Amino acid sequence: MATSSSTATTVAALLVTGCALAYGASTVFSTKSVPSLDDLDDVEENPDECITPELVVDVFDKLFMQMQQVVLQLSQQVQQLQMAGQSIPEKQLRQLLKGEFERALLAFQPKVYEDNDVDADCLEEATWEFLSTPDDYPKVKRAVERFQNLYQSISGEEVVGWTPSKGKSVASGRELSADELMKAAKLYFETITETMIDIAKAHKEAGKDLKSQEFQMEAATRSNEAAEDKIKKDMDISIGEFRSAVEKHQRNPIVGQTLGMLQMKQQQELMAAGLPLM
């Protein structure tokens, strides 16, 4: 019989990601619309036209922003069920969350592709090409893997680092204890909060709207990057090691409670600073 621990397990993973596919990226490409004959002609004539690393990063950043909000909404719904005493078997919950995620992604993709004037097939080809030499395109690698982490938090599937040529990357690095994870999570959340408040202050002084997509994109990108850099610099913990530790210890009720309290504190501080919750 399922208990609330299965629900809490999934919530713990969602909380860290909510702050913040190439298998996950393959989900982006597998849900694309079918191109017209004119589109296919254009692809054949100009296979690499306008597909720059910056464009790939921009597309994945926009998709991440949209889907991050979906993940936050889903995590809040799961928490409400948990607080009401309801429980769902983890396998069933993962399936439901994955289905909702992919339906939302399918709805968002056409607009993002249209806004960037990009063909899905060309984008797919360029993305895999750039990721075949990731050291040459670190921003592409970071943008794609950030989206992979988001998908992984929902699906429970180990997808970070997957590409058609090499498959899923093998996890490396040390394994963190539950205490190390909670210490790192505290630093991670605090850095995100501080960075977002600083960015909001700069936008306010410039007379910019904090509800604009520009602010949300910059705040999400820079705050997550700052948090990743902070735990690496201060604790020598990579984001891969951090997320692996979340997966490993997410069944620990103390870890789940700690992550929940950190998120609640973060939301309170952001609201007190006048920031809209994203």
From TrEMBL:
Keyword Signal part of the UniProt annotation = yes
Q: Hey, what's the signal peptide range on this chain? A: 1-24
| Keyword Signal attributed | yes
Q: Which domain of life is it from?
A: Eukaryota
Alphabetic keyword roster: Signal
The name of this protein is Uncharacterized protein
